[in-house]
Amino acid sequence: MNxxxxxxxxxxxxERGRALLDRGRDRRGNGSARSESLxxxxxxxxxxxxxxxxxxxxxxxxxxxxxxxIGPRIAFFEALARRFGTDPARMEAxxxxxxxxxxxxxxxxxxxxSEPRRxxxxxxxxxxxxxxxxxxRMREQLMDVLVNRDDLGAVxxxxxxxxxxxxxxxxxxLRHIDWSTPAIVLExxxxxxxxxxxHDWDDLRRRIDPPDRRCYAFFHPALIDEPLIFVEVALTxxxxxxxxxxxxxxxxxxxxxxxxxxxxxxxxxxxxxxxGVSFGNFLIKQVVEExxxxxxxxxxxxxxxxxxxxxxxxxxxxxxxxxxALSEADKAALATLDEPVWWNDxxxxxxxxxxxxxxxxxxxxxxRSARGLPVDAVARFHLGNGARLERIDWLADVSDKAMAQSHxxxxxxxxxxxxxxxxxxxxxxxxxxxxxxxxxRFLRPTLELVPxxx
Length: 454
What we know:
Elements: H1 2-27, H2 38-46, H3 51-66, H4 70-83, H5 88-100, H6 104-114, H7 117-125, H8 131-146, H9 153-166, E1 173-176, H10 183-192, H11 201-208, E2 213-219, E3 229-236, H12 244-247, E4 261-269, H13 280-294, E5 300-303, E6 305-306, H14 310-318, H15 328-334, H16 346-365, H17 377-384, E7 388-393, H18 400-406, E8 410-414, H19 420-430, E9 433-434, H20 437-440, E10 452-453
Parallel strand pairs: 4-5, 9-10
Antiparallel strand pairs: 1-2, 2-3, 3-4, 6-8, 7-8
């Protein structure tokens, strides 16, 4: 109710401000300012108008921007990079003042002068009704351009800087998503599911309505009906080793007195324009607290996570001469992975299991990026949150997508409340992969050791 009232208030201010702007234009003759360029309008917005006219002008700018086609939109981003960066004259004056008389006041001016003008422009645009949503969309469109335009990276950095503040955890609201949630939100849960596709409304209901299923999402007051990130949870007896039983149509519901494990089997980020703003770590921790309050006897919190880059990494290792990860014997055995639907042949799956699991252990425990980080993005997320690599699950997902991306592997990460901080520190300080003995035993014994903890 409060958010709705605030939105209506901004709308009213915008309408009054638009009337003020229009009267001002008429006085300048034949409304010529209506043809002002988008950049000129942005300069006017930064020039320090009153609040009502400023809100109206921000709304007008976003409306004009929304009408741009791809070419003019890129030109707008170029102008943001060139014309709305740090003011050199102001920066030089601030530095000179600080050198002449160092103080908190002159240091504050250096800090203010160093801020790119586009950050203040984005703040003022954000005052328009729907401004936050429009800016998130603008950043999404900028990301499409960044693939070939590194020179626009500074504009993207400013978006991330501001969004990190605007979408601070203190502003986020956790909601339990169930069958009584408004349909407009449920439709977006179906659309945004990024790990295990939700096929229809019946499929959605099986995931959020039964007593042994939960779904939680973070929302922001400026995006009332837009989930930012959501997690699907299965309440099970034991740690699951495959996704099919969790998603099965005719599965048996787990009775409350037999629930011992909460399994996070899908985490989906919903707003591409907010990439780089972290919500997931807060989401998992708060959901653990919520479920713990509701069902105190739950003893185990785990994920059932995909391994989306394992197959591509393994393909490169198979082609690498003198691979540290694969023996020549394993390379020969892994040739079976190139055969169609090999997973339907029990003999082939039995022969592949050990070499694939050995390769997976190396992938998770030893493989590193150029920056010295684990190569798997999902692993980096959970390890950074203090989880332990608990188990690698063989043929846990035999969907076409999973077989192409991971040869069917999935992974369990264990969130042990007593060890989360210790595990997080081990990973943050030494990039140590905290892993169970069950995972470590798959490593070939002759391999050189790097930090791994059990």
